[in-house]
Amino acid sequence: MAADGDLEMEDVNLNMGRDTKGELEEEKEMQEDWRSKDRFKNKKVHRVVSKWMLPEKVRRTYLERANCFPPPIFIISISLAELAVFIYYAVWKPQEQWITLDTGILESPFIYSPEKREQAWRFISYMLVHAGVQHILGNLVMQLVLGIPLEMVHKGLRVGLVYLAGVIAGSLASSIFDPLRYLVGASGGVYALMGGYFMNVLVNFREMIPAFGIVRLLIIILIIMSDMGFALYRRFFVPADGSPVSFAAHIAGGFAGMSIGYTVFSCFDKALLKDPRFWMAIAAYFACVLFAVFFNIFLSPAN
């Protein structure tokens, strides 16, 4: 009887061991299924991104090493900072109306002001302040829609380089061509991203699927026209009690993007620092920066 009891216990233990192993195998299979589904979804996203951002000859390379690590932190962080500053001036520093902010933001320590050019941080920090709802929504939508895919492909360091090059070019150009005007908004950085992407699509038009290429160019042109229209209104048709804002940053940011941005975004599968086009663009950019600094110190009407 004792022997029979021992046999029954052994059978039960064996069955329990088999059940446990079966459950573990089922869990592993489920985890593998979930992973394969996630990989499929990720590959699908990366495939769409590669079609919009890269010429055909380098898409395979991107898809082979595509991942979301690191995630597009730069564009998201910049967008959140700009939104936070806008909410601060619209809510905690309430204006008479905040559809289009006016005199309140002119007292901000971030805005580019001709009278306070010695505060060098203003040549960059002006990108955090926006003139109204239309202004910030346009910039946020464009830099998120275009910036996130660009950062997925080229990563934050390269996208940040292009974005900040556009921001600095915008403020320096405004200080030369519109020296007595205030400057707000991230349009210089946004236009740098658009300029770099525009040139990449234009140069690789045949490889980036003609139909998609035409759509992309039309979308970019439409956005530029609408944004420039708002900037021109703020510059030349602002009400008498308002404050006109410079729009030179849009143009300068676009040129920065079409030079530095194009070389950066066209070097996806190459070492950027070994590309002579990059150094030519950097040299031209710094020559313009040095001239702008000289102008601001010795020749500016705002002195």
Automatic annotation (TrEMBL):
Residues 118-266 form the Peptidase S54 rhomboid domain. SUPFAM superfamilies: Rhomboid-like. The active site is at residues 187, 250. One of its GO terms (cellular component) is plasma membrane. It is an enzyme of class 3 (hydrolase). It is a multi-pass membrane protein. Its main location: membrane. GO terms for biological process: proteolysis. Belongs to the peptidase S54 family. This is Rhomboid-related protein 2.
